[in-house]
Amino acid sequence: MSGTDGAPPSPPPSTSSRAAQAADPPVLLAPTLPTTLMALAIGIFGGWLAALAGLPLAWMIGAMSATTAAAALGAPIAMPIGFRQLMVTVLGVMLGSGFSPEMLERVGEWALSLAALALYAAAAGGAGLFYFRRICGYDAVTAYFSAMPGGLSEMILVGTEMGGDARIISMTHAARVMLVVLALPFAFQMTTGYDPAARPPAGLPLAEVSGADLAVLTACGVVGFLLARVLRLPAAALVGPMILSAVVHILGWTTAKLPFELVAAAQVVVGTAIGCRFAGVTARLLLRTAAAAAGGTVVLLSATLAFALGLAQLTGLPAVPLVLAFSPGGLAEMSLIAIAIGADAAFVATHHVVRIFLIVVIAPLAFKLLRRGGGRR
Q1: Which of 80, 85, 347, 79 is nearest to 235 (CA)?
Q2: What is the rounded distance in angstroms from the CA atom of residue 350 to the CA atom of residue 303?
Q3: Share of the chain above pLDDT 70, in %
Q4: Largest Cα–Cα distance in the chain?
Q5: Distance of alpha carbon 169 from alpha carbon 142, whole angstroms
């Protein structure tokens, strides 16, 4: 698979083209002030248009769609990792504020669905591996780490160390997240009658939030992130602030919510960051990988629906939160969708934290065992 503009069209990845798959990835733009400002301007404009059109999760979907299109057209856009982490920290605090003292009584109801995540990860990952290996013809390492339903950054890093194609793995996971974020809100709108215009804002206006509440929530974000980094938790920028904010809200120390202006800004940055992942990639390679990722996303979402609907029958839990809890999208993105449609965001976020932990810890170990047992094949 060639990544150069002047190269002739190549066939889908196969045994004969794996050498081409291992070509150097395209050089991405450095996140400078001009590239960041351009990315944010495009993201804000896209979010504004989506809000005018009344689309579900408008600010994130609009920003993501606009920046992805701009990246495919060669626009010089980039997003600093630190800036995205800052806004993801905001989302973590917001998700933690969805917990309450009454929620402790419901944790037992989640036991079966949480336990099912390990089986889901194995089944969905196995189906995805078969698809990328046999249908798309990816080499074994690239197929395995492209198929995992989560842990985007970790799968890219570990997959590259194991000899996979970093370019293909990263674009496959980015496309998966984008496709899931695009598909689910519209699916809920068509099947459940969800009306994005009828949903109230996610929080109070900034002017109505007290200084004391802002101080408590800010401390949850800063201290939670630092503790998560020290403990080396996955998705530290989101998980640490979410856990600390949840503890503060469960103990009843505060009932404060973040101002909705901050929530909208976080949606724009998260959506823009997804789009910027495609910067520096040729349109041909982007379309080819996106087509393969679309098929893989269908495979993973099929497993999601099977597990979610089955667990809804077994546990009596609502199907919509279960679909979001098992969907192979990003933790922040799926939690935002839960908030947007009025589903239980704490339930969704908790399941995604467990899913990411299982995949990040178990997937590399399982790959090493499989490779040791099967040799090079």
Answers
A1: 85
A2: 19
A3: 83
A4: 63
A5: 6
SS3 content of the chain, % helix, strand, coil (to 5): 75, 0, 25
> Quick count: other Cβ atoms within 10 Å of Cβ 369?
10
Measured CA to CA in angstroms, residue 83 lies from 78, 112, 192, 275 at distances of: 11, 37, 35, 15
- Nearest to 111, CA basis, from 354, 360, 356, 359: 354
The neighbour count for residue 365, using CB atoms within 10 Å, is 9
Query: How far apart are alpha carbons 103 and 185 in whole angstroms?
Result: 26
Which of 102, 39, 6 has its CA nearest to residue 272? 39
Q: Which tokens in the block code for residue 273? A: 């960051």
Instruction: Label residue 289 by pLDDT band (50, 70, 90).
Output: confident
Under 8 Å between Cβ of 136 and 254: no
Q: Residue 151's closest CA among 358, 373, 375?
A: 358
Task: Give the count of beta carbons closer than 10 Å to the beta carbon of residue 117.
Answer: 22
Average pLDDT, the chain: 80
For residues 265 and 116, the answer to whether their CB atoms sit within 8 Å is no
Residue that is written with structure tokens 């505060």 in the block: 254
pLDDT digits (tens, 9 = 90+) for 335-346: 778 877 878 888
Token duo for residue 73: 């057209």
* Residue at 280: amino acid letter: G
Closest to 285 measured CA to CA, from 16, 38, 15, 17:
17
| Total residue length of the chain | 377
Strand segments (E) across 22-167: none
Cα–Cα–Cα angle for 366, 363, 91, nearest 5°?
A: 165
* Residues sharing a CB contact under 8 Å with residue 187, sequence separation 6 or more, in sequence order: none
Residue 375, SS3 per DSSP:
coil
Contact (CB, 8 A) for 146 and 138:
yes
Give the orientation angle of helix 283-315 with respect to helix 319-326, to 10 degrees: 140
Q: State the sign of the Cα–Cα–Cα–Cα dihedral 49, 52, 58, 59.
A: positive
